Amino acid sequence: MSLRKKIADSAWFNRSVEGLIAAWIRFAHDSSSWDRIGFEPMDEALRAGEPVIVALWHQRLMMSPWLFDVSLGRICTLTSSARAGRLAGQVQARFGFDTIAMSSHKRHVALSREVLGKIRDGYSIGIATDGPRGPARIASTVPLVWARSSGCRVFVVSFSANRVLEFPTWDRMWLPTPFSKGVLMCREWRETVPRKPSEEEMERLRLSLQAALDEVTDASDHAAGRLTGA
C-alpha cells in the first residue's frame, strides 16, 4: 500500500480533515449574515412529528446542517460509501445527522428497506438528488420511490451566498466563505406520487422535481445577489 493511501485511510487523518471542514463551515455560517426563507411549512411538519424528505443538488451540500433544523426532528442522509462520501457523512454527523452509506454492493431493495425503516422510526431523509456521482442537476427517481412508499412530503432546499469557493469537482461544489451574505431557502414540492405510476408518469414527476430543485436553487442565487435576472 502506498504512503498516500495509508495516510488517506488513516482514522486520525480523516478525523482531522472532518474537524477542519466542520470548523470552516461553522465559522463561515456564524460569521456571515443569513436570510432563512420558506422553511415554515417544513418546520411545522417536524414540530408535529412528521418525517419529511429533503432534496437538494449535490453542489449545495456543504450547508446542509442549516437546511434542516435538528432541534425539531431527526434526519438521516444518504452518503456514498467511497472515501469522499464517508468524509461528508462524518462531517454531517458532527452536526447531529445520522447517515446511511450507499454502495454498489447494496441492492436498491435493501437500501429502500433501510430508508423506509428509518422513516418509520421518525427520521426525515435527506438526499442529494443528483449524487453521488452525477450528472450534475439531473434528478434521480429515488426520492420519488421513497415518497410513494412512505407518503412523506417532499421539500427542496438550497443555499447561496454572495461569496463562495467553487471546487473543480463534477458538481462544482460550493463552500461558503466567512463574512458573506447568504440565503437558506426551502420550498415544498406539491406533486403526489401515485402508488403504481406508469413509466411516463414517473418521468413526468422526475422532471417536475428536477425543475423544482432548479427553481429553488436559482431563486436562492437571485436572493443572494448572484443572478441579475428576474
Helix-strand pattern, N to C? Answer: HHEHEEHEHEHEEEEH
Mean pLDDT, to the nearest integer, reads 89
SS field, number of helical segments: 7
Percent of residues in helices: 40-55%
| Total count of strands | 9
Which overall shape is indicated by the principal axes computed on the Cα atoms? globular
**Largest beta-sheet details:** 7 strands, mixed
The low-pLDDT segments are none
Report the sheet-strand fraction. 15-25%
From the N-terminal CA to the C-terminal CA, the straight-line distance is 54 Å
- Placed side by side, the strands forming the largest sheet appear as 1-9-6-2-5-3-4
**Over all CA atoms, what is the radius of gyration?**
17 Å
Which class of secondary structure composition applies to the elements?
alpha/beta
Give an overview in words.
α2 (11-30) crosses α4 (83-93) and α5 packs across α6 (142-150). By secondary structure, the chain is α/β, with parallel strands linked by helices. The radius of gyration is 17 Å and the shape is globular. The longest helix is centred in the C-terminal third of the chain and has 25 residues, at 199-223. The chain has a 7-stranded mixed β-sheet with strand order 1-9-6-2-5-3-4, sandwiched between helices. Strands 7-8 form a two-stranded antiparallel ribbon. The chain has helices at residues 3-9, 11-30, 40-47, 83-93, 108-120, 142-150, 199-223, and strands spanning 33-37, 52-56, 75-80, 98-102, 124-128, 153-161, 164-166, 174-176, 181-189. The model has no long low-confidence stretch (mean pLDDT 89). The protein has 7 helices and 9 strands, in the order ααβαββαβαβαββββα. α4 (83-93) links the parallel β3 (75-80) and β4 (98-102).
